[in-house]
Amino acid sequence: MSVSPKADPLTSVPFAYRVATLIAVVLPVAVLVAVGYGLWGWGLFWTELLVMVGMYTLAALGTTVGFHRLFTHRAFETHGWVKFVLAALGSMAVQGPLIRWVALHRRHHQHSDAEDDPHSPHRTRDGKSSLLGGIYHAHLGWLFRSDAPGLDRYVQDLSKDKSIKLASDLFAVWALLGLLIPAAIGGWVSSSWYGFLLGFLWGGLVRMFVGHHVTWSINSVCHLWGTRPFKTNDESRNNLLFGLLAFGEGWHNNHHAFPTSARHGFRWWQLDLSYTLICALRFVGLAWQVRVPQAVAENGGPQAAI
């Protein structure tokens, strides 16, 4: 992979692509905010809002820290029970079983924005490229296509670990708990079935919708809209909005330049909550062998690969 500290931003992506992607991302969020505002006081209360944010945070960190940086890229090491907890939390995001998620993501990195990339907005599975078709395919269309043959070869290491395989096989259990826990909290706080249903709706279904939309936007938006401080062999881009919403995953060009780095936000202003959690785990002795590019660790100016 070619890695350089400077590259021209927003190159090779047509303006229409970026406008269409912006509308597709902003519109559902705007509608959700409007609905929440309209329901405030009778269909949405502080309990549901806090439960939704709390469950979103737990499931998102389980995905970003666990599924992505730990299991996919082995950016740090930790105890077996911590791995199991992160696998369970990540599964509550309801993005599929851990082992399949990792296999698809490793394949994405091997073929990023090439024909065999599972979810590139630049090339669909049949090799054709179009404006709306590429955006749709990268965002969620790829979910309705069959997996490429031989996908299991990407995850032979995880499949051999009995604890990780068990956590992956229990995906349906974790997904159900991710819906029932906020419902139970809502019902307990309000002492009513109405509170139970609101907790299920906002902390379960709506939270899951937001999490899916944010994660899928890393596949679509972050390969179309943003800056490219590093010249990589794909169209990965840093995107401020999803750097925040996805807890550091939106610094996507940084990540594709240094895929095994536990840290994605290289500059002081590139907030990376996932890396903050990894640092906290290291501080209390629950994480070690945390991988970060040497130049980033020393002076915040990445110049060399790990």
Shape: globular
What oligomeric state do the depicted chains represent? single chain
- How much of the sequence lies in strands comes to under 5%
Strand order of the largest sheet: 1-2
User: Mean of residue pLDDT?
Assistant: 87
Q: CA-to-CA gap between the ends?
A: 13 Å
> How many separate structural domains?
1
**Total strands:** 2
Order of helices and strands: HHEHHHHHHHHHHEH
What attributes characterize this protein structure?
single chain; 306 residues; mainly alpha; two-stranded antiparallel ribbon; 13 helices; 2 strands; 57% helix; 1% strand
Overview of the structural elements:
The chain is mostly helical and 306 residues long. It has one domain (15-299). It has helices at 15-39, 46-72, 80-91, 98-110, 131-139, 156-159, 162-169, 171-190, 193-220, 240-245, 252-257, 273-283, 294-299, and strands at 77-78, 287-288. Strands 1-2 form a two-stranded antiparallel sheet. Helix 2 (46-72) crosses helix 4 (98-110) and helix 2 (46-72) crosses helix 9. The longest helix is centred in the C-terminal third of the chain and has 28 residues, at 193-220. 45% of the residues are buried.
Topology:
Blueprint: H1 15-39, H2 46-72, E1 77-78, H3 80-91, H4 98-110, H5 131-139, H6 156-159, H7 162-169, H8 171-190, H9 193-220, H10 240-245, H11 252-257, H12 273-283, E2 287-288, H13 294-299
Helix pairs in contact: 2-3, 2-4, 2-8, 2-9, 3-7, 5-9, 8-9
